[in-house]
Amino acid sequence: MKFSILMTAVLLTSGLATAASAQTLQKINDSNKITVSYREASVPFSYLIGSSKSVGFAVELTDAIVDDVRKKLKKPNLQVATMPVTSQNRIPLLVNGTYDLECGSTTNNSTRAKDVAFATNHFYTGTRLLTKKSSGIKNYADLAKKTVASTTGTTNAQVIRKYSADKNLDMQLILGKDHDDSLLLVENDRALAFAMDDILLFGLMANSKNPAALEVVGDSLQVEPYACMLRKDDPEFKKLVDGTINRLMKSGEFEKLYTKWFMSPIPPKGVNLNLPMSEQLKANLKAMSDAPAL
After folding, report:
1. Which of 223, 222, 186 is nearest to 201 (CA)?
2. What average pLDDT does this structure show over 254-260?
């Protein structure tokens, strides 16, 4: 009986600890520190220039959210720590409390929503192919029994694997540890194409060693929304994050940020991606939806 009571107490305490761990604003308030993540090669969302400075569209969204956290908690001197994450570790490190917020190039889908929560969608994209112009690759059928790269921990790796199986293409999939690594597989001829979100492919190509030698080809396999990611079961923090993004959308600041990062020269090489806002994103400036990918 004592053992059963003890175990019940342990389970209840564990449950309370788990619930409490999701309360991000309280955690930030108690520690006077918020930890946010960045990506090293998700151009133009979040990427490094130099050895440690992260820049990008999603980095500016992060900064706006952090400013609103400062105001909410009345902590003008709030400490901000940054840490790099990869496609593979971004979800487990968020769930276990290592960091508090991820705004990058993460797809909002129902599978991931079992483990994390997503804010208002801030971009829409789809899987396409980056290849050398000399490869002769124009669409997925050209890659039958050929080697294709993607990045570990991404939805794109799952999409291209399923597409290959459904169409009996027998593609040979190899995975880079990050997007730069996957690009290198194509540049070094270890893979004929790199399957990834088209916007990331355009960004990687623009900042590659020889952009003129590369091209983005193929049909878009699916439309996926990007959104900032936070821990589940934390309505207070989600309300704040959604509030920041929605405010930017209503005020016109979001469109100015979009123009800065997608329609203007960006660092480090001053390349202009020249990518007009998609119809899906234009619609979401009004809808302000956090709906996941189908």
Report:
1. 186
2. 98
Q: Is 120 helix (H, G, I), strand (E, B) or coil?
A: strand
Check residue 146 and report its DSSP letter. S
Q: Which residues pair with 118 in a beta bridge?
A: 229
Short-list 214, 260, 220, 239, CA closest to 117: 239
pTM of the model: 0.86
Structure tokens at 229: 């990611």
Residue type, 238: K
Return the structure tokens found at 37. 């993540």
Record the tokens describing residue 16, joined without a space: 């309370």
Tell me the average pLDDT across 269-279.
Answer: 93
Q: Which tens digit of pLDDT belongs to each residue from 40-98?
A: 999 999 999 988 789 999 999 999 999 999 999 999 999 999 999 999 999 999 999 99
**pLDDT digits 0-9 by tens, 75-85:** 999 999 999 99
- pLDDT exceeds cutoff 60 at 274: yes
Three-state DSSP at 79 gives: strand
Q: What is the pLDDT of residue 8?
A: 37
**How wide is the angle at C-alpha 83 spanned by C-alphas 293 and 277, nearest 5°?**
40
* DSSP per position, 254-280: HHHHHHHHHSSEETTTTEE---PPPHH
The radius of gyration computed from the CA coordinates of the chain, to the nearest angstrom, equals: 21
Q: Which two tokens stand for residue 24?
A: 């991000």
* Residues whose CB is less than 8 angstroms from the CB of residue 229 and which lie 6 or more positions away in sequence, other chains included: 90, 91, 94, 101, 102, 103, 106, 108, 112, 116, 117, 118, 119
> Do residues 203 and 226 lie in contact, with contact meaning Cβ atoms separated by under 8 Å?
no
Name the average pLDDT for the chain. Answer: 92
What are the residues facing 194 on neighbouring strands?
130, 149
Task: Report the distance separating Cα 128 and Cα 214, nearest Å.
Answer: 13
pLDDT for res 15: 38
Q: Which of 61, 66, 151, 64 is nearest to 104 (CA)?
A: 61
